[in-house]
Prior knowledge:
By secondary structure, the chain is an alpha/beta fold. It has helices at residues 3-7, 25-34, 53-60, 71-76, 79-85, 96-104, 110-117, 130-134, 136-147, 173-183, 218-229, 259-269, 312-318, 335-345, 387-401; strands at 11-16, 38-43, 88-94, 122-126, 151-152, 156-159, 165-169, 193-198, 203-206, 209-211, 233-238, 252-255, 275-278, 285-287, 306-308, 324-331, 350-355, 367-368, 370-374, 379-381, 385-386. It is built from 15 helices and 21 strands. α2 (25-34) runs parallel beside α3 and α5 crosses α7 (110-117). The two termini are 25 Å apart.
Amino acid sequence: MSSGSVLSEKRILLGVSGGIAAYKAAEVVRSAMRAGAEVRVILTSGGARFVTALTFQALTQNPVSTNLFDPGQEQEIGHIDLADWADLLLIAPATANVIARLAMGMADDLLTTVALATRAPLVLAPAMNVHMYRHAAVQRNIKELRNGGAHVVDPAEGEMACGHVGEGRLADTEDILDGAARAISTQDLSGVALLVTAGPTEEPIDPVRVISNRSSGKMGYALARAAWRRGADVTLISGPVDPGLRVPRGVRLRRVETALEMGDAVLEHYPKASVVVMAAAVADWTPDSVSSLKIKKGEGNLRLDLKQTRDILSQLGRAKGDRLLVGFAAETDRVIENARKKLEGKNLDLVVANDVTVDGAGFGVDTNQVVILDRDGTERPLPLLSKERTADAILDSVSALLSPRARS
Ligand code: PMT
């Protein structure tokens, strides 16, 4: 699932501490609510110097908590109730000061008190001046908090409000919500090195023309996102797709164009991978020769000689070792029969049979309908689902097959 669907109906307690990036917390609130989360805000006294409680009250439609010792607020919803209410405590921005107090285990204001009282996961999105961020004391405190189980969404690099350029800007809202989604997801793929491929390949005919296919990359990107969220160490090898298609910052992304490049990239990463999921629509044929000049339009038809590309998955299957291999089978007829042939012929553990003639399934769309086949002859048909949910279902099958060794 995208961070959106994972956060749906989750209760996020957002702590806003006192830095110039506090104004960006309003965008975090809006995006989290758009993703279906309910949000309540704790505004520290520092945070209130930059943004008002009214802003967050208007956005969340919930009262904003500011003071540990205000009897009115405690009566409305006390600090223990807030701590119990939350599915997730997200602090964005987290200043050097709040990070230090959390690392010390202090409870000297409402936010730090709730952080100690809650059993919900803690996500910190630090934001501060680059020199402050790099200071040994801040780094030590962040490390301490990480060791204690906190999730830290590293700040972005760039120009800061103080005029300095470097690391310390509050991470993008999407990265913060990705971090939140990962923090509340089961980490069943933790320690798994997972290689995913996505998108089409483009086989050049001449400098201006290519042969390609209709793959958008959505299925493979959804798999990469879901695997990262579930704790895997993910490498995504992507053919040419819409640059707007995004993956979390934690996913290693390698872009390629041709089938040859995709094969080389996959083989390069293969030794380190314990699971490979080939969702890419790799070209089966490529022009035998590529014209260095644009082919001129003549009188008659143009004939192209195409040669077969290497079958990457078959090559992986021959050197499988104890890896887990998952292939896709994009079919238009005798879907299950053809998919099973690929499962056996390519020495796979699972094959995802994708009838691309079904409405709302296959290429380009946001949804898919697949059947997961395994070597024992089991068929697991899935209903029409978003590609995010389809990805999670495929990963459930992967997770069930993984040996404890692959997770180490
Ligand atoms: O990208 P989207 O728009 O979201 O669409 C998703 C999808 C339809 C592309 C995806 O769900 C899918 O079905 N991907 C596999 C497409 C495909 O190439 O299927 P195939 O049956 O031709 O290939 C079988 C398997 O061999 C695939 O895992 C493929 O990645 C792999 N292969 C194919 C050719 C080749 N030269 N080397 C390979 O490794």
